[in-house]
């Protein structure tokens, strides 16, 4: 699971109002190369919750990102590379996503987050 | 600029929409601007038919902005046999000769110059011409002043002489009222070599509803898949649709409710990831297990996907599932609570997902998650006894349908590939309506399941055949599974 995905997901358990961002429980992290595409990064940037990405990257052991980011920084190649690495190349292979409100654990195994809810959570 | 566009005699309804989609894709890419602001190119692809031709004929005239665009369309398409600069046409060879002679020299001579190489191909639709017949026809072209040398393998310029006629029985092909002959210079042709490369029989990991490679490419073309774009498939299965999108350079993301398919496959070298590796394609950015009925997107997340492509489960070969538990939804038992100590490894049961609800969720997802101008491309099944005039395609206030292409699957049912463009913002009112509808589906679960009786319409052996008689004749004989 890439951090792009993490940035899009929340806990959608019935009654939960604040299911984002999910906390990362990292058992195994790998770096998977993704072809760099500046246009893609520029298009996706406004949709990203920066704080959530920043915290997730730190949880994955990557402290390269600046504290705050704004659209003007997208012209900076070095920033784009860091953004690309954090958003697309850090990959959670084994671990879990934890709902910030209920503590419910959504397991991530073989890189696949399992977001399916139990019968009494829908 | 007008060109002669000759199609393969396949998937007839899919042919014009493919060219139109590719024209839009290339114009957007070439002009290299606008993220997702306005939709639709200013340029409109126009069509004409040759005299007396039926729309199912392989010969069409198409107006495109430039020869360069025409070439690129042909090269990326699957169904365009060739796009040609027409030098002349006629209903007999004398008329053709007059037309070619009248075609301005300044457009002809540069392709006939000494030092260039060329090839002429004689082709016919509806009948096979013997090589003797072909040579006779070619020999008649002496009035064209070819100065170059012939090179059959790699010529600079390719010329085509194509004829079509009412050959008596016409082999069940579309009606040709009158003989027509075309002569033109090839501008571009489809590269169908990628089909044997991607054909399903050589793919490692397959499911029962894996999308045929040709169709997957047609879907990816409708979705305008290209580098820098993000394409999502909410019913990803073995990834057969995303493979086509990835081939065209798009980033991909998929979800499925069946964790065995997306996580395990049939082992370490036979799963969704290995399917991408097999073709040296970049793996999906993300595959997740999620329920399209209760998507796990954070609130406030909108307009992230450039396209959503999918083949929803419609209950004929594979039925849809959603979370909630079968018994609970039927109201047969009191709400089930998972005991605390069992929660960690609990495997939730799923309930059947009616087609109506599935499509509703899909349109809502597209309305919310597509960028403006983004496309939703999906198959919609139709029981054929409903008759073509009775088909009510799904609609959404944010989405505009731009193409409906029918693929007939059996006597009883066919599926339509629907292409929709997101043309309006997803408002809070729409979100609220979707929420209400979600509860309506949930409360009347049993009723909705009964409504979608497509499975019985397709498999029920008796009782339906009488109604079908009318319908059977309403489509021409040559329309079948592949056309």
TrEMBL record, chain A:
<protein>
    <recommendedName>
        <fullName>Trm112p-like protein</fullName>
    </recommendedName>
</protein>
<dbReference type="Pfam" id="PF03966">
    <property type="entry name" value="Trm112p"/>
</dbReference>
<dbReference type="GO" id="GO:0005634">
    <property type="term" value="C:nucleus"/>
</dbReference>
<dbReference type="InterPro" id="IPR039127">
    <property type="entry name" value="Trm112"/>
</dbReference>
<dbReference type="GO" id="GO:2000234">
    <property type="term" value="P:positive regulation of rRNA processing"/>
</dbReference>
<dbReference type="GO" id="GO:0046982">
    <property type="term" value="F:protein heterodimerization activity"/>
</dbReference>
<dbReference type="GO" id="GO:0043528">
    <property type="term" value="C:tRNA (m2G10) methyltransferase complex"/>
</dbReference>
<comment type="similarity">
    <text>Belongs to the TRM112 family.</text>
</comment>
<comment type="subunit">
    <text>Interacts with TRM9.</text>
</comment>
<dbReference type="GO" id="GO:0141106">
    <property type="term" value="F:tRNA methyltransferase activator activity"/>
</dbReference>
<dbReference type="GO" id="GO:0005737">
    <property type="term" value="C:cytoplasm"/>
</dbReference>
<dbReference type="GO" id="GO:0030490">
    <property type="term" value="P:maturation of SSU-rRNA"/>
</dbReference>
<dbReference type="GO" id="GO:0000470">
    <property type="term" value="P:maturation of LSU-rRNA"/>
</dbReference>
<dbReference type="InterPro" id="IPR005651">
    <property type="entry name" value="Trm112-like"/>
</dbReference>
Automatic annotation (TrEMBL), chain B:
<dbReference type="GO" id="GO:0006400">
    <property type="term" value="P:tRNA modification"/>
</dbReference>
<comment type="similarity">
    <text>Belongs to the class I-like SAM-binding methyltransferase superfamily. TRM11 methyltransferase family.</text>
</comment>
<dbReference type="GO" id="GO:0032259">
    <property type="term" value="P:methylation"/>
</dbReference>
<keyword id="KW-0808">Transferase</keyword>
<feature type="domain" description="Ribosomal RNA large subunit methyltransferase K/L-like methyltransferase">
    <location>
        <begin position="202"/>
        <end position="324"/>
    </location>
</feature>
<feature type="domain" description="tRNA (guanine(10)-N(2))-methyltransferase TRMT11 N-terminal">
    <location>
        <begin position="52"/>
        <end position="192"/>
    </location>
</feature>
<dbReference type="Pfam" id="PF01170">
    <property type="entry name" value="UPF0020"/>
</dbReference>
<protein>
    <recommendedName>
        <fullName>tRNA (guanine(10)-N(2))-methyltransferase</fullName>
        <ecNumber>2.1.1.214</ecNumber>
    </recommendedName>
</protein>
<dbReference type="InterPro" id="IPR000241">
    <property type="entry name" value="RlmKL-like_Mtase"/>
</dbReference>
<dbReference type="GO" id="GO:0005737">
    <property type="term" value="C:cytoplasm"/>
</dbReference>
<keyword id="KW-0694">RNA-binding</keyword>
<keyword id="KW-0949">S-adenosyl-L-methionine</keyword>
<keyword id="KW-0963">Cytoplasm</keyword>
<dbReference type="GO" id="GO:0160102">
    <property type="term" value="F:tRNA (guanine(10)-N2)-methyltransferase activity"/>
</dbReference>
<dbReference type="InterPro" id="IPR002052">
    <property type="entry name" value="DNA_methylase_N6_adenine_CS"/>
</dbReference>
<dbReference type="Pfam" id="PF25904">
    <property type="entry name" value="Tmrp11_N"/>
</dbReference>
<dbReference type="GO" id="GO:0000049">
    <property type="term" value="F:tRNA binding"/>
</dbReference>
<dbReference type="GO" id="GO:0080180">
    <property type="term" value="P:2-methylguanosine metabolic process"/>
</dbReference>
<dbReference type="GO" id="GO:0008168">
    <property type="term" value="F:methyltransferase activity"/>
</dbReference>
<keyword id="KW-0819">tRNA processing</keyword>
<dbReference type="InterPro" id="IPR029063">
    <property type="entry name" value="SAM-dependent_MTases_sf"/>
</dbReference>
<dbReference type="InterPro" id="IPR059073">
    <property type="entry name" value="TRMT11_N"/>
</dbReference>
């Amino acid at each position: 699971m890439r951090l792009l995905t993490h940035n899009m997901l929340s806990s959608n358990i019935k009654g939960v109002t604040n299911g984002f961002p999910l906390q990362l429980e990292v058992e195994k992290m790998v770096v998977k190369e993704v072809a760099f595409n500046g246009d893609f990064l520029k298009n996706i940037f406004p949709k990203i919750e920066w704080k959530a990405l920043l915290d997730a990257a730190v949880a994955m052991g990557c402290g390269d990102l600046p504290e705050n980011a704004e659209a003007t920084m997208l012209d900076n190649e070095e920033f784009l590379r860091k953004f690309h690495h954090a958003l697309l190349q850090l990959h959670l292979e084994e671990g879990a996503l934890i709902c910030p409100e209920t503590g419910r654990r959504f397991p991530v195994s073989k890189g696949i987050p399992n977001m399916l809810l139990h019968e009494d959570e829908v | 600029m007008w060109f002669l566009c000759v199609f393969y005699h396949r998937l007839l309804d899919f042919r014009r929409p493919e060219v139109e989609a590719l024209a839009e894709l290339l114009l957007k890419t070439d002009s290299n601007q606008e993220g997702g602001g306005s939709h639709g190119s200013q340029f409109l692809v126009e069509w004409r038919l040759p005299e007396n031709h039926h729309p199912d004929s392989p010969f069409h005239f198409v107006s495109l902005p430039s020869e360069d665009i025409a070439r690129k369309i042909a090269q990326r398409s699957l169904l365009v046999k060739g796009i040609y600069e027409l030098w002349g046409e006629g209903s007999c060879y004398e008329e053709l000769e007059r037309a070619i002679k009248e075609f301005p020299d300044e457009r002809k001579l540069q392709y006939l110059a000494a030092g260039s190489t060329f090839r002429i191909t004689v082709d016919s639709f509806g009948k096979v011409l013997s090589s003797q017949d072909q040579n006779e026809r070619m020999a008649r072209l002496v009035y064209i002043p070819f100065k170059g040398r012939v090179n059959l393998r790699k010529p600079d310029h390719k010329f085509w002489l194509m004829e079509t006629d009412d050959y008596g029985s016409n082999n069940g092909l579309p009606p040709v009222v009158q003989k027509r002959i075309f002569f033109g210079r090839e501008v571009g042709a489809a590269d169908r070599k990628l089909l044997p490369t991607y054909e399903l029989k050589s793919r490692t990991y397959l499911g029962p509803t894996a999308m045929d490679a040709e169709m997957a490419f047609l879907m990816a073309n409708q979705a305008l898949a290209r580098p820098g774009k993000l394409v999502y498939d909410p019913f990803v299965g073995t990834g057969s649709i995303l493979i086509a999108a990835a081939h065209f350079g798009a980033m991909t993301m998929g979800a499925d409710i069946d964790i065995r398919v997306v996580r395990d496959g049939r082992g370490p070298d036979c799963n969704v990831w290995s399917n991408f590796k097999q073709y040296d394609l970049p793996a999906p950015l993300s595959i997740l297990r999620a329920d399209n009925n209760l998507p796990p997107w954070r609130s406030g997340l909108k307009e992230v996907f450039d396209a959503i492509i999918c083949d929803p489960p419609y209950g004929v070969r594979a039925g849809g599932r959603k979370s909630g538990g079968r018994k609970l939804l039927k109201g047969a038992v009191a709400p089930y609570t998972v005991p605390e100590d069992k929660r960690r490894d609990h495997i939730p049961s799923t309930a059947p997902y009616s087609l109506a609800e599935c499509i509703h969720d899909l349109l809502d997802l597209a309305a919310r998650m597509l960028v403006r101008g983004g496309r939703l491309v999906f198959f919609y099944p139709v029981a054929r006894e409903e008759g073509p005039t009775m088909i009510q395609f799904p609609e959404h206030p944010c989405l505009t349908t731009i193409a409906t292409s029918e693929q007939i699957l059996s006597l009883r049912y066919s599926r339509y590939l629907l292409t929709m463009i997101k043309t309006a913002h997803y408002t809070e009112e729409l979100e609220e309506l979707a929420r209400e509808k979600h509860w309506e589906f949930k409360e009347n679960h049993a009723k909705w399941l009964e409504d979608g009786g497509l499975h019985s319409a397709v498999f029920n052996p008796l009782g339906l055949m009488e109604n079908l008689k009318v319908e059977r004749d309403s489509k021409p004989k040559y329309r079948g599974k592949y056309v």
